[in-house]
Amino acid sequence: MLQYLGYENSVITLILSTLFLALWNMWPTKKWDPRGQFCYVTGGSSGLGLAVAIALTKRGAHVTIVARNEERLAKALAELEKTRQSSNQILRSYSFSLTDADASHAALETAAKDHGNRYPDAVFMCAGAARPGFFVEEDAKSMQKGMDNTYWVQAYTALAYTKQLVRSQTSGKLVFTCSILGYMSLIGYSTYSPGKHALRGLAESLRSELILYNSSVHIMFSGNIDSPGYVEENRTKPKITLEIESTDKPTAPDVLAKELIYGVQRGDFHIAPDMLSNIIRSSTTGATPHHNVLLDVLYALIGWIGLPLWRRGVDSTVLKHRKEHKDYLAARGFFKSTD
Amino acid sequence: MLQYLGYENSVITLILSTLFLALWNMWPTKKWDPRGQFCYVTGGSSGLGLAVAIALTKRGAHVTIVARNEERLAKALAELEKTRQSSNQILRSYSFSLTDADASHAALETAAKDHGNRYPDAVFMCAGAARPGFFVEEDAKSMQKGMDNTYWVQAYTALAYTKQLVRSQTSGKLVFTCSILGYMSLIGYSTYSPGKHALRGLAESLRSELILYNSSVHIMFSGNIDSPGYVEENRTKPKITLEIESTDKPTAPDVLAKELIYGVQRGDFHIAPDMLSNIIRSSTTGATPHHNVLLDVLYALIGWIGLPLWRRGVDSTVLKHRKEHKDYLAARGFFKSTD
Question: Which residues form the signal peptide (chains A, B) (predicted)?
Fold first, then answer.
């Protein structure tokens, strides 16, 4: 009897200490506060970027949004004005094409002018776009455009901002937004996944390097976002990819914006906004810092078994699609073209 | 007593079945034979590429090597001739700049002419280069060059080859060569890791997509290679990165070439040529197919504990380097420049 009690006690102790450690890890120790901070948000005119800008404005930050489309920028700025917390908050919008290195640099310099040539305390890189398609229907130009709209649109801003930080001997926060397609990939994403994987690589290199300058790096890996960009990407998305994703429900931008800011506040390097992204994060963690070690073990175990099963399902769906795909390519004249 | 025997028996059964499963997984079921196959090797004039070309020639394949430097190509072709197994083997070399999309296409078309306009049975993409450095000392041009020499130098060949395969309705093998810096990263590799991560993303997308065409994708993740390229990259490698890597011993190209070909023969998607790369592979596996599930669990466990410990060590080395790095940047005039 005693030994059973002992066994039960051990189990209870184990559960309690697990819970304690789990809660301990979740407890914000030195929470970053956006109030009064100068936050720079790219892709800030719509989707996730706009949601992040609104959330930061609501938390009392000075917010500058940058995007290409002037009309959408004006509307977005009007929305920010509506959520302003005080008359002191500096809210601005600028139109720049961030797939260009010089423009990415100029955009930051312009934004800094509104703050007495001080650079942002945090840069939220939310710009990006996906144009899914079949690899055999891509060409060098569409592949390069894919890399521009996933990788360079954030990397150029990161480069300009890091130089400004180090040169002005201040510290800051680089916040990248990636995708679970930066952890893994599937049919249809040959112009998207490479750039998103590249962002993971850049962030991992910079996390290590920016220790030199007391600056931090964060990167969020989310699933599909319920945004104008998602509607746009589904127009070119192959039918087979849509079929595989048919059970996915895109997440609302404001939910992701909240998770992104929480992640930065907690100081997470990899920010996973929901259970699925946590499972994939923990299953591809490598040398990346763990979050809560105990929860991560659980996620990794689920991923270890679940992800290969999911992949087998996808593989067999692709295999069944062979005949239809050949007909599709023939109808598009692929077998007659010569590029 | 009986229960102890039973326990021992269970353990023995467990060990035996583990060993059986491990051996079963290692056993090549339908081994690819390079003999008589048309193999195309990029970066084939030196380092890993040349070693792969020699190994394939020794196994009786027709081998075409492509690289930029004509002098080195001529020497390499002479080496291939020395290892020729029969007079029927077609051994060729061509000079093309594979960071260019059109040249990558033209190189494959030229090679196909020697085989009656038949495209290669397997393409080994071994071209690539690293120029490590500090992120704040990079510019848009050096970042783009980094992407050219890691990602595009293989992606353009993959694009041209896949189109040719699908259009000619044949099947083939795409073999990428990546690095463990495509799984993780550290200080000094901001122009290298992104492109290598991008290759992982591309390969993962194509593995899924090329099921449509009965073609296979393989990608090797190796550590440093004892090659002319390694000597070259160490010239620009930051001192701190050299210090972190000081215990690494680069692997001989012929050892890696052998492992690469074994991996392709076994049909592995991710090819890890040694224990360290297997540990990192298993720790970042995600939805990527497992190799031997039991061995992979062991590798993943080692990685789960070991890799974060290694990273902490690296982080503290970087932290200690702050003062020296600031002096270095000052001496280079970084704080006075304005780019």
Answer: none
User: Is it the case that residue B339 has pLDDT exceeding 70?
Assistant: no
Pick from B194, B321, B335: CB nearest A201: B194
Q: pTM (2 decimals)? A: 0.92
Q: Does A325 touch chain B (CB under 8 A)?
A: yes
A169-220 confidence digits (pLDDT tens): 999 999 999 999 999 999 999 999 999 999 999 999 999 999 999 999 999 9
Contact of A226 with chain B, judged by CB distance below 8 Å, is answered with: no
3-state SS class at A27:
coil
DSSP for residue B174: E
DSSP H helical ranges for B29-134: 47-58, 70-83, 101-113
Task: Decide: A313 and B205 in contact? Cβ < 8 Å.
Answer: no
Q: Report residue A64 CA to chain centroid gap.
A: 19
Distance from CA of B128 to the nearest CA of A (A): 16
Contact between B108 and B164 under an 8 Å Cβ cutoff? The reply is yes
User: How far is A35 from B54, CA to CA, in rounded Å?
Assistant: 63
- How close B190 comes to chain A (CA, Å)? 5
In whole angstroms, what is the distance from residue B170 CA to residue B122 CA?
11
Task: Assess: ipTM above 0.90.
Answer: yes
Q: Does B75 touch chain A (CB under 8 A)?
A: no
Q: Which two tokens stand for residue A90?
A: 């500096």
Contact A154, A127 (CB under 8 A): yes
CB A35 within 8 A of CB A265: no
Residue B118's Cβ-side half-sphere holds a number of Cα atoms within 13 Å equal to 12
Amino acid of residue A63: V
For B63-99, write each residue's pLDDT tens digit: 999 999 999 999 999 999 999 999 999 999 999 999 9
A147 touches chain B (CB under 8 A): yes
Retrieve residue B148's tokens.
């050219």
Nearest to A26 by CA among A262, A188, A287: A262
A325 contacts B308? CB cut-off 8 A: no
Phi/psi of residue A206, nearest 5 degrees: -70, -35
Band (A23; pLDDT cuts 50, 70, 90) = low
> How many whole angstroms separate alpha carbon A236 and alpha carbon A238?
6
pLDDT tens digit sequence for B20-42: 655 555 554 679 999 999 999 99
Task: Please name which of A220, A195, A290, A199 lies closest in space to residue B190, comparing C-alpha atoms.
Answer: A199
Whether the CB of A22 is below 8 Å from some CB of chain B: the reply is no
- CB nearest to B206's CB, from A156, A190, A308: A190
Please report which confidence band the pLDDT of residue A19 belongs to, taking 50, 70 and 90 as the band edges. low
